[in-house]
Amino acid sequence: MENIDVVIIGGGPAGLAAALAAHDEGVSVAILERDHELGGILQQCIHNGFGLRYFKEELTGPEYAQRFINKIKESKINIFLNIMVMQITSEKVITTINPKNGVVHFKAKSIVLGMGCRERTRGAINIPGTRPAGIFPAGQAQRFINIEGYFPGKRVLILGSGDIGMIMARRCMMEGIKVVAVAEVLPYPSGLKRNQVQCLDDYGIPLYLRHTIIDIRGKERVEGVTIAGIDEKWRPIPGTEKTWDVDTILFSVGLIPENELSSNAGCKIASNGGPEVDEFLQTTVPGIFAAGNVLQVHDLVDFVTFEATRAGINAAKYAKDELTIKKDQKEVVYVKPGSDVGYVVPERICGIKNSKEPYGIEFSFRVKNPRQNIIAEIISKGKIIFKRKQKFVLPSEMIHLKVKLNPEDVGEEITINIIEQDSSINVIEKEMLEGS
Amino acid sequence: MDEKASNEVNEKEIICVICPNSCRLRVSQDPKTKEINVEGNLCPRGKKYGISEYSNPVRMLITTMRVEKGKLPVIPVRSTEAIPKSLLIEAVKVVNDTHCLAPIKMGDILIDNILNTKISVIASRDIDVKN
């Protein structure tokens, strides 16, 4: 059995940042990674646009990863590659397996979960048609092209207009793979406008909104696909069918936090698919922390880094027995998603009730619908205790609220709402909003 | 994108991608004075974007290159700055016809002065030699 202070599960962006932050706190750290190298999904995201918040410059995914990997290699952090974590217990014993040493156990004082997420597949969204080869999640096709160096096919239809889907459309066209169309069930593209312009419009790829796949043809290999417009109940509208001969279909239809290890360890899983955490990013199992896409699916890696840095510091403090709130979590305040809010992280706050001064908390959440001119407000004991104006909110863009709340304003629970800006707000309130 | 020229004004519709406002810009050039006119923008950044996107649209070159003797068969590469959009597909072909040899470090110049743009293509990561 290997004894280590802080064990990090996963060597992607969350694991790398958590490991460095914990290491800086002076504890022993190990990263357990199942792939043959560190970096996680960043290694296949070869496009640029990463790092604007964290490094204040625009990097590609591999460059963003390489900067962290270089730092890790200079540190005393133990790196274990090609190692699969089979089980984590609530006592923080980690069972792993690897081809050289077989089964190896680790005993940690604290753990940071950084397993990321996996792609939703065709099977998960009830798409009719045959089940031939040539149907891939978009991220898997991205790995084939960008890391393993081969093409998934020659003529492609993409379902889902998330950023991965649109970026893959451009990547395919650049390599001479014809993208016949992108179809999206929602009435608006689910990725960034920038990607719609630079990945689809630049290459003349049509985007069909409010459309879905109604048939896939082919026995051994995909031979063709048919899409159709859908009504408000998501039923296909007769007469709107469009058919193409294609050999490949890519699905970019969402990401799911990967939490089998977490739930087996006893962590309570929240409604968004990630473990329920407190303001220290600690799960319901004391000493097990979570950060990155395993906790909530992010749209910017920079925020994964910020989040995982906090988790790494708190995990190290827990290992050193310095985390102020550890066992006594009786006076918990629960955080509820209110109107038009999908979920909120953290789901509970442990330290505010015992705090003698305004208590700093960082919330992140997503809205359910695209809206304009809104107010994000925090409500407790029937009163508004914080509000902030925002011009645009989109389901694809995570919202971050860094607030300081007065302990006496907070009851047993607090709610975060998204509401319309009221034109009748009085002048004082307006000034308060402008200033916040 | 369609770049049809009409006889009098060469007008193009460009969606500004600087912020989520996504202004629909109507950009045209006066045939005599050559002055570029931007309408439909809500802010000065939109005007700047409209002019640059109209007169000389540029994009980053982002693709992969074959690696010999590397731990992985391909390496992600990028241009040191954005290149003219019209050269993008040709530039990808140049990259596809070039091979590099491991070991490679992030930032190594793999193609110098691609298509006489004075812009280089560099490695996005390290790739070690295959054992």
Description:
The complex is a heterodimer of chains A (436) and B (131). Chain A has 436 residues and is of the alpha/beta class. Chain A has three domains: 2-118 and 255-319, FAD/NAD(P)-binding domain (3-Layer(bba) Sandwich); 124-251, FAD/NAD(P)-binding domain (3-Layer(bba) Sandwich), CATH 3.50.50; 333-435, Sandwich (Immunoglobulin-like), CATH 2.60.40. Chain A is 21% helix and 34% strand. Chain A has helices at residues 13-24, 61-74, 138-148, 163-174, 193-200, 260-264, 301-319, 427-435; strands at 2-9, 29-32, 48-50, 59-60, 78-80, 84-88, 93-98, 102-113, 117-119, 135-137, 155-159, 178-184, 207-209, 211-217, 224-229, 242-245, 248-251, 255-257, 288-290, 333-337, 341-345, 348-349, 359-367, 371-380, 383-393, 399-405, 413-420. In chain A, strands 1, 2, 5, 6, 7, 8 and 19 form a seven-stranded mixed sheet that branches. A five-stranded parallel sheet of chain A has the order 10-17-11-12-13. Helix content of chain B is 16%, strand content 31%. By secondary structure, chain B is α+β, with helices and mostly antiparallel strands. In chain B, the strands form three sheets. In chain B, strands 8-5-6-10-9 form a five-stranded mixed sheet. Chain B has a three-stranded antiparallel sheet with strand order 1-2-3, covered by helices on one side. In chain B, 33% of the residues are buried. The interface between A and B is medium-sized, with 29 and 25 residues.
